[in-house]
């Protein structure tokens, strides 16, 4: 499908290729990432990302393909929302363009690639292993040339909202810092952390009444205000489900 990043498996980038250049302001970084947040939250972008995630299922072993598709259908809106929740300030601090006082500073050191965590042999939820595999493959696929090209275009598209002098500087920033931006996105897609956040995985524990049902996804989260609070999904339900049922809006207010 046009506009959907290719998800062919790619090899990890060498650290020597991650050397950064100086001269980009904190403000430019903040503007670019803020625009990307809006892009990620648009309906068309959510659909594109969902299609991209579905392609991941095609490279999974046949035994888990069906589980992968169910996982994508259930959790892709939450995954997009989770990435979009990360503030521009945190992203720009993460790639070392903004200091604690949001002053610009140069990045000279290569950014270390964080290894993916080992699979947990414990039973942590019916979709837990499938979720972690999906996120691991997606993270690796950020290294493919076609995916990088689409992400680079998305970042440069954010520059269009700036005045001309800043727009030029913004595009230079995107070109120079593309490797570390890609690496930052990979780190934000840490399989264990993300899958716990969306409720697909939980730590080994004695189940409490109802909490295992959070792994059922939005169909359970948004059933009631209590279920949404239990699964930490109130914001998701307000944005994607409850707003579509005005007759019941008072119940969730």
Overview of this protein structure:
With 253 residues, this protein is an all-alpha fold. It folds into 2 domains: 15-197, no CATH class; 211-252, no CATH class. Helices cover 57% and strands 0% of the residues. The protein has 12 helices and no strands. α1 (26-41) packs across α4, α1 (26-41) packs across α6 (145-158) and α5 packs across α8. The protein is globular. The N and C termini lie far apart (39 Å).
Summarize the structure.
57% of the residues lie in helices and 0% in strands. With 253 residues, it is mostly helical.
Cα radius of gyration in angstroms: 19 Å
Please, how many helices? 12
Low-confidence stretches: 1-23, 102-124, 206-211, 246-250
Oligomeric form? single chain
Note the overall shape: globular
Helix share, percent: 55-70%
Structural class: mainly alpha
Proportion of beta-strand residues? under 5%
Name the average pLDDT. Answer: 64
Question: Could you tell me how far the N terminus lies from the C terminus, measured between alpha carbons in angstroms?
Answer: 39 Å
What string gives the helices and strands in order? HHHHHHHHHHHH
> How many beta strands in the DSSP annotation?
0
**Biggest sheet, in brief?**
none
Function: May activate the lysosomal degradation of sphingolipids.
Protein name: Proactivator polypeptide-like 1
Pfam family, one: SapB_2
Keywords: Disulfide bond, Glycoprotein, Lipid metabolism, Repeat, Secreted, Signal, Sphingolipid metabolism
């Amino acid at each position: 499908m046009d506009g959907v990043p290719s998800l062919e498996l790619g090899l990890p980038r060498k650290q020597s290729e991650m050397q950064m250049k100086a001269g980009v302001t904190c403000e430019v970084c903040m503007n670019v990432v803020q625009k990307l947040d809006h892009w990620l939250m648009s309906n068309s972008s959510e659909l594109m990302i969902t299609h991209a995630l579905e392609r991941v299922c095609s490279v999974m072993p046949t035994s888990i393909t069906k589980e992968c598709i169910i996982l994508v259908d259930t959790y892709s809106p939450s995954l997009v929302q989770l990435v979009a929740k990360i503030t521009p300030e945190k992203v720009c601090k993460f790639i070392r363009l903004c200091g604690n006082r949001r002053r610009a500073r140069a990045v000279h050191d290569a950014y270390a690639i964080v290894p993916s965590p080992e699979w947990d042999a414990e039973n942590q939820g019916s979709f837990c292993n499938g979720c972690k595999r999906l996120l691991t493959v997606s993270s690796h696929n950020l290294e493919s040339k076609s995916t990088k090209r689409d992400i680079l275009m998305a970042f440069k598209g954010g520059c269009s909202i700036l005045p001309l002098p800043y727009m030029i500087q913004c595009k230079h920033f995107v070109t120079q810092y593309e490797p570390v931006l890609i690496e930052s996105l990979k780190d934000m897609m840490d399989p264990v952390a993300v899958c716990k956040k969306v409720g697909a995985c939980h730590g080994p524990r004695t189940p409490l009444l109802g909490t295992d049902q959070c792994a059922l996804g939005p169909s359970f989260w948004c059933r009631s205000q209590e279920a949404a609070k239990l699964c930490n999904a109130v914001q998701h339900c307000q944005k994607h489900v409850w707003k579509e049922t005005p007759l019941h809006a008072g119940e969730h207010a």
